[in-house]
Amino acid sequence: MKPNLSSSKLNTKDVIVILSSLLEKKEFIKPAKYPNFSQKEARLLVDLIFFKPKDLLWRFILEEAFGDSSFGRMAFNGPSVRKVKFLHHLIETRFNGAAAARLAGFCHPKQAAYRLRKELACSL
Asked: Superkingdom, according to UniProt (predicted)?
């Protein structure tokens, strides 16, 4: 079964067919050694291909950053939501901590940025 590559969107089966056909094609340049994946990375790929939740990449980043596998599934309370927003805005503002903290809703952005960056650095 060939996937419809003229379509703007591919379904899960199409993606799997394409990936498996790439392994068989001699023209496709393959690495000398295939990369190894951790259980988290494999779970991310499975979730991405089969379920494609909108927040999947954020959950993965947050799990890696904060080292807590339940982070994406926890009930968000006030401070947690602001931490997630801070991380999002930190990337969005090209790592301007004070601007990210202000956009995330912290009252004292400079102090919050310092504290959250320190907390983030300790957890990496």
From this structure: Bacteria
Amino acid 67 reads G
**CA dihedral over 95, 110, 108, 75, signed as positive or negative:** positive
Are 92 and 100 within 8 A, CB to CB? yes
Domain that holds residue 108: 75-124
- CA-based end-to-end distance of the chain: 44
pLDDT tens, 15-69? Answer: 898 889 888 888 888 888 988 988 888 888 888 888 877 666 666 666 766 665 5
Task: Specify the DSSP class assigned to residue 84.
Answer: H
Total-model pTM: 0.45
Q: How many CA atoms lie within 13 A of 63 on its CB side?
A: 16
The answer as to whether 13 is a domain residue is no
Domain count, the chain: 1
Q: How many CB atoms lie within 10 A of CB 72?
A: 16
